[in-house]
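Structural prep section.
Before we set up the soaks we want a predicted structure of the protein with magnesium ion in place, mainly to decide which crystallisation condition to try first. Input record follows.
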Amino acid sequence: MGPAGSGKSTYCSTMVQHCEALGRAVQVVNLDPAAELFSYPVMADIRELIEVDDVMEDESLRFGPNGGLVFCMEYFANNFNWLEESLGHVEDDYILFDCPGQIELYTHLPVMKQLVEQLQQWEFRVCGVFLVDSQFMVESFKFISGILAALSAMISLEIPQINIMTKMDLLSKKAKKEIEKYLDPDMYSMIEDSTNVLKSKMFKKLTKSICGLIDDYGMVRFLPFDRSDEESINIVLQHIDFTIQYGEDLEFKEPKECEEDKSALVDEYFQDHVDE
Ligand SMILES: Nc1nc2c(ncn2[C@@H]2O[C@H](COP(=O)(O)OP(=O)(O)OP(=O)(O)O)[C@@H](O)[C@H]2O)c(=O)[nH]1
Ligand SMILES: [Mg+2]
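Run finished without errors. Recording the tokens verbatim:
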């Protein structure tokens, strides 16, 4: 999941390639009815069921692109048997769902929650992966809104969620250094940055309360994702494996980060890249 253009489809194809190299099977299901092309093989494609263009062209429906997407997703929620048939029964399935970017799907519409419940009924273990573009995260205000988007998905879906900052390869060394503080944020120090520019006292107070809430509950952390760096892809994969206990029947593995110092791996990532 993640806002439009945050790198969801790229994440799926990067993971497929990465896992292929590890000799591990990963399947992808495209759940974006407006998707045009993607660079990974699909196990199932929602467009076989319904397409946004067809909904928009329908004389009796007359939806625009966003209403059309919502209609498609609701239609999908009423036809989960299509998904069941497409998923089949493969041993040790690891399936990525490439979701649409519209935030309303994760905030107040029931469809994604229904999908999660359906998958759980079919005995899948589900982990949310929420992507945010690092390019937009170099300022504290944008960061706070990114955090709130991730948080609303987390709260509405009620599943474990891994938050990821994508496109790290596009950042300059200086920006990388700058963004380090956003990965495991100390919200209280960020409050100072962001509230200085606020004139309204009430707005200042609200921003402080939101930052305080996020910090007190330690709810949101981000992992860096650089598609050109195998180590960063591996860290993300390990976290997700640990969350869903993937392969626990075969061999129990904790993510490296839990064994070592909590932030050692993330620090190491930055060390390597800033020193280059
Ligand atoms: N350099 C770089 N570019 C990336 C990365 N991830 C995505 N992009 C680029 O960002 C653009 C959007 O990526 P997508 O993967 O299509 O994003 P998306 O979230 O699937 O977008 P929608 O499905 O339209 O919501 C594409 O041009 C990608 O090539 C990354 O890690 N590094
Ligand atoms: Mg996409």
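Observations: The pocket of magnesium ion (ligand 2) is lined by residues 8-9, 32, 35, 98 (CB under 6 Å).
Flagged for discussion at group meeting.
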